[in-house]
Amino acid sequence: MALTVGLRPLTRALLRPWARVPGAALGRPAAGSGDGVRCFGSPRVLVEPDPAAVGVAVMKMRNPPVNSLSLEFLTELLISLEKLENDKTFRGIIITSDCPGIFSAGLDLLEMYGRDPAHCAEYWKAVQELWLRVYLSNLVVIGAINGISPAGGCLLSLSCDYRVLANNPKYAIGLNETLLGIIAPFWFKDVLVNTIGHRAAERALQLGFLFPPSDALQVGIVDQVVPEDQVQSTARSVMAQWLAIPDHARQLTKNLVRKPTADRLLQQRDADIQNFVRFISRDSIQKSLHVYLEKLKQKKG
Amino acid sequence: MALTVGLRPLTRALLRPWARVPGAALGRPAAGSGDGVRCFGSPRVLVEPDPAAVGVAVMKMRNPPVNSLSLEFLTELLISLEKLENDKTFRGIIITSDCPGIFSAGLDLLEMYGRDPAHCAEYWKAVQELWLRVYLSNLVVIGAINGISPAGGCLLSLSCDYRVLANNPKYAIGLNETLLGIIAPFWFKDVLVNTIGHRAAERALQLGFLFPPSDALQVGIVDQVVPEDQVQSTARSVMAQWLAIPDHARQLTKNLVRKPTADRLLQQRDADIQNFVRFISRDSIQKSLHVYLEKLKQKKG
Amino acid sequence: MALTVGLRPLTRALLRPWARVPGAALGRPAAGSGDGVRCFGSPRVLVEPDPAAVGVAVMKMRNPPVNSLSLEFLTELLISLEKLENDKTFRGIIITSDCPGIFSAGLDLLEMYGRDPAHCAEYWKAVQELWLRVYLSNLVVIGAINGISPAGGCLLSLSCDYRVLANNPKYAIGLNETLLGIIAPFWFKDVLVNTIGHRAAERALQLGFLFPPSDALQVGIVDQVVPEDQVQSTARSVMAQWLAIPDHARQLTKNLVRKPTADRLLQQRDADIQNFVRFISRDSIQKSLHVYLEKLKQKKG
């Protein structure tokens, strides 16, 4: 974990210069920002134009300690993504984590435990929305995966156009839902099958595999594994390669390839929400969540 | 073949201790078994609780000489599988062969040659049923493939959750139907595509490839190749890994991944039977079968 | 390019002996051929029975300089393919190029630039027809890819049953449409996904990858890479392997695997033509084509 902790000062340093960049430097006046800085960010989602690459934003997830995808965090992510999509100055996003050692721990169990059905439904709709927005984004989306990335964190990674994983044996990635006694929804499964093929997905999903970097690369759940201090620079190089392609042709082609998978959810989005609510409301599942959350508390305590 | 023959005494030895295990030792009274032994077995299907692993049954196919899937043998397999599914003491099955050198030679041509349409239809329904039952089994099903596994024998292997193949160059596995002038039905094709991908399946199916162990592993038609005397122990280790996952989550996930493939047959099961009967009843096909069966007779004679 | 140029005299030599083969040598009288030679060929499509293999035709594309798939060339290809399909003496075709260094440059932009919608529609229908005829051919179709093979040239390659690529680093293959600012139609995408899998296709299509031989082999967009002077002989050896399978079983199996992909186009063929015409008629696309064609002119001039 030393390497990760070591990175934090660097991260801060990267943030500071950006904070001083005037909005005008990006070709238009700063809007809704008191100190004249153009800022899409929110408390949990730091968005900065890449100082070295025109048209690229770096989006840092900062929902400590583990970037759990709470409803509030999801909402902030969605707002930031929408703003970036609508801002013509941006053509690509690098998604990365500001929480040392963790890309994202995935869905927030507290949004599902002891909540009423309406809340669970609202939560699930936001989870769907995040996937649809990232998976079908018109922007090039590169995942700079600088930490462990289980379950929903893995889904977020899989929704990017390209995945660069830091070569730290602790940084495993996978859809490990079965280990918690729950199951991934069909569209998590579809995205995994698209990425690593049917057989590898069948096995990984049932066994709840969390792939360490070398296995992750071999099975194809990530595209590249690099030393931890090269994750961001590699993501930038890859971004340059993707941005060399005319946007319109790339976007239509991305849509051609990904739309059929997204459509499977879009055609039954409400039913999928109902399914989730029904599943999560079961006594047996609530009990499993209780046991699991108690364990987490004891760990912390 | 020496290795295989050498294994037989061991197999017998494994059977004998089981024969002495009283049903009560499994936590409930023996039922329908004269000597107090719990026994799902039938003349051709030996079912024994794994002496070393709680909840695991070993199912040995013994329909000499080549474990041809005759209607009678299929029926016994189906009954054993159903009993195991309904018996709460079992969570996994290891399927293996008691016939040296042969896992299963596949469908029994004698059930298709010179038979009336009603018989062929009944036979095909049983073949479908075996696939559906193994492919969608709630139990973990591991194939301990200790012999050659062509055509229907390969389908049975592909329907398991995991395949361990003995590293003997004679133990080839594949859907070699075209070599006999017949064609695999669409659901054999679907399962092969799911396992090794579209392109490899396209080529293997047309050329009737029988993959020897090293090629089988490389193309992914089996998951693991081990020395012949380690097939059973490896299957047991793998089983332990699968049984570490909560059953309910694993079963739902398996269903999530496999149901769409099974549904393609379920939605047109009768049409598939009619197709088979029509195809097999053609004069040209009956002639091909005749030629092939005559060749087999001469070999034996 | 030295190697390729060096090959031309050889190619001519191969053609000359064929020109002297009397039709009667193929077991039936020559028809519609002034000098008694059986000849399916046309000015741009040379078809010759393989002198060394019964039942095999070699089809050489000769539409210099780059085998652009013009409407006229497509029409000749289609007529030749239809004749071969209907001629019981042939069981397989080897498709190769007679233009040094280029297998086929793909679609002819001059058939799309400055043309009226009716012409574009007619052209697109011919492109569809070529794909359907090669992809679903009852004959074994082997691609002896002796040159670069971008875009439509790659599609033609992907539609073969097997691809042998000459090991020359200049001979790249891929669907590079996005580089020109256009997009591959869905059925190009489907065939690429079938061949190299969903993830590799997603990336290659968006980035317009042209794979040099070693990468092409690794990703699986070709089946074999051999020294340039062994492409034809390797294609012949592979053909022998495919012809060892009974035709009827192989054809039905090919249809089983490929028909669902072809059906996706067949079910919406007119809509696909309208889509193409609408897309290509856009001012922005016409302008892109203009720019590109002007560049090509300058290169030549």
From TrEMBL, chains A, B, C:
InterPro entries in alphabetical order: ClpP/crotonase-like_dom_sf, Enoyl-CoA_hyd/isom_CS, Enoyl-CoA_hydra/iso
UniProt-listed Pfam families: ECH_1
Any GO BP: fatty acid beta-oxidation
Keywords noted in UniProt: Acetylation, Fatty acid metabolism, Isomerase, Lipid metabolism, Mitochondrion, Transit peptide
Residue stretches in coiled coil: none
GO molecular function: delta(3)-delta(2)-enoyl-CoA isomerase activity
Listed GO CC annotations: mitochondrial matrix
Gene3D superfamilies: 2-enoyl-CoA Hydratase, Chain A, domain 1, 6.10.250.170
Subcellular compartments: Mitochondrion matrix
Entry EC no(s): 5.3.3.8
Biological pathway: Lipid metabolism; fatty acid beta-oxidation
Catalytic activity: (2E)-tetradecenoyl-CoA = (3Z)-tetradecenoyl-CoA; (3Z)-decenoyl-CoA = (2E)-decenoyl-CoA; a (3E)-enoyl-CoA = a 4-saturated (2E)-enoyl-CoA; (3Z)-dodecenoyl-CoA = (2E)-dodecenoyl-CoA
Function, in words: Key enzyme of fatty acid beta-oxidation. Able to isomerize both 3-cis (3Z) and 3-trans (3E) double bonds into the 2-trans (2E) form in a range of enoyl-CoA species, with a preference for (3Z)-enoyl-CoAs over (3E)-enoyl-CoAs. The catalytic efficiency of this enzyme is not affected by the fatty acyl chain length.
Subunit: Homotrimer.
Family assignment from sequence similarity: Belongs to the enoyl-CoA hydratase/isomerase family.
Protein name stated in the entry: Enoyl-CoA delta isomerase 1, mitochondrial
